[in-house]
């Protein structure tokens, strides 16, 4: 198995407040890991260190064998944090073009495979129906 994330002896402080104190964590390919704890336990701090959003203070963190602050390393990463979102006016095709540029490709303003993705209310968009017995917030018109 390939190691995706390694944290060894990771400690982090915000002024006099200890957020992490000697945390060790290893995540292998295919594993699903949940960080559970009360507010202020350091969950977000650990994730932000792991994805390179915070500078490391003590200990070591490796993401797919590299430094999480390196753009080359972060190309292997996809993160959606709970407080982030996209403007409602942003089209899916624009998101895909932005991701392509970030991944080293070139932006295309329109690609044939995106033609039905620009708006859930476009004439070509198919209505979305919820799977039978599903209760997962099926308010979006996107197709499953």
What does this molecule look like?
It is built from three helices and three strands, in the order E-E-H-E-H-H. With 144 residues, the protein is of the alpha+beta class. The protein has two domains: 3-74, P-loop containing nucleotide triphosphate hydrolases (Rossmann fold, 3-Layer(aba) Sandwich), CATH 3.40.50.300; 86-131 and 139-144, no CATH class. A hairpin with a 2-residue loop joins strand 1 and strand 2 (17-28). The protein has helices at residues 43-50, 71-74, 92-102, and strands at 3-14, 17-28, 58-63. Residues 114-119, 123-130 and 134-144 have low confidence and may be disordered. The chain has a three-stranded antiparallel beta sheet, with helices on one face.
The name CATH uses for the topology of the largest domain is Rossmann fold
Radius of gyration: 19 Å
Task: Indicate the percent of residues in helices.
Answer: 10-25%
CATH homologous superfamily classification of the largest domain: P-loop containing nucleotide triphosphate hydrolases
Helix count, per DSSP? 3
Instruction: Tell me the name of the CATH class of the largest domain.
Output: Alpha Beta
> What are the segments in which pLDDT stays under 50 over at least 5 consecutive residues?
114-119, 123-130, 134-144
Shape: globular
Question: Strand percentage, roughly?
Answer: 15-25%
Give me the secondary-structure category. Answer: alpha+beta
CATH architecture of the largest domain: 3-Layer(aba) Sandwich
| Major β-sheet strand ordering | 2-1-3
Order of SSEs = EEHEHH
The major β-sheet equals: 3 strands, antiparallel
The number of E-state strands comes to 3
Distance between the termini: 31 Å
Number of domains: 2
The quaternary state of the protein chains shown equals single chain
């Amino acid at each position: 198995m390939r190691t995706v994330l390694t944290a060894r002896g990771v400690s982090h402080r915000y002024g006099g407040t200890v957020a992490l104190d000697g945390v060790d964590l290893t995540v292998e390919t295919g594993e699903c890991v949940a960080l559970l704890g009360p507010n202020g336990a350091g969950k977000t701090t650990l994730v932000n260190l792991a994805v390179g959003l915070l500078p490391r203070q003590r200990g070591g963190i490796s993401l797919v064998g590299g430094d999480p602050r390196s753009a080359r390393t972060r190309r292997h990463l996809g993160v959606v944090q709970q407080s982030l979102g996209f403007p409602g006016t942003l089209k899916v095709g624009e998101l895909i073009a932005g991701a392509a540029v970030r991944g080293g490709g070139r932006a295309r303003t329109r690609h044939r495979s995106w033609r039905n993705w620009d708006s859930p209310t476009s004439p070509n968009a198919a209505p979305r129906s919820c799977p039978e017995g599903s209760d997962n917030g099926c308010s979006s018109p996107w197709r499953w």
